[in-house]
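Annotated sample (chain length 161).
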Amino acid sequence: MDQILEIMENDSRITVEEIAKLTKQDSKAIKRKITKYEKDGIILGYKTVINKELVQDEEKKVRALIEVNILPQKNLGFDYIAARIYKFEEVTNCYLVSGTYDLLLIVEGKDMQTISNFIAEKLSPMENVRGTVTHFLLKKYKEYGIILKHKEDDKRIAISY
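Output written by the structure step:
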C-alpha cells in the first residue's frame, strides 16, 4: 500500500505538510495524490473512533454479529444477496467470509428486541437465507486497532457484618 495511505489510515487528522515531511515529498504532490485517491474511491471517508462507553449522554445502541448462511442465486452469486442485505439500515458492516457461514454482518439497534425483529422480520424471511447465528456484543476492548479505556470501577471496599 502507498506510504501516504498507510500514514492516513493511522491518523486521518495528519496534515498534508506533516505527510510531506514524513515521506520527503512535496506537499503539493501529496495533496494531488490525496485528491486523486478520494476521486477514485480509494479514500472513502474519514472516521473518528469514539469510545461511547465514556460519553455520558450517549444513547446506547446494541450491536450484534450475525453469521448468515445463504444459497447463492444462479448466475448472480453471493454479491446480489449481499447487496440486498447490506442495504438494510440496521446493517453497518457486511463481509463475505469462509467457513460454516457465508456472510458476517454487524448490525445496530436501540435494543436487543430491535435486532431480534430485524432478524425475524427482514433477514430470515429472505428467500436465499438458509440460517443465522447471532452474537450480541457485550463489551469492546479494542476497535480499529485502538485499545479502549473503560470507566473506572467503584473501588470502595464492601462492608460486611
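Annotation: The mean pLDDT is 91.
Annotation: The two ends are 63 Å apart (CA to CA).
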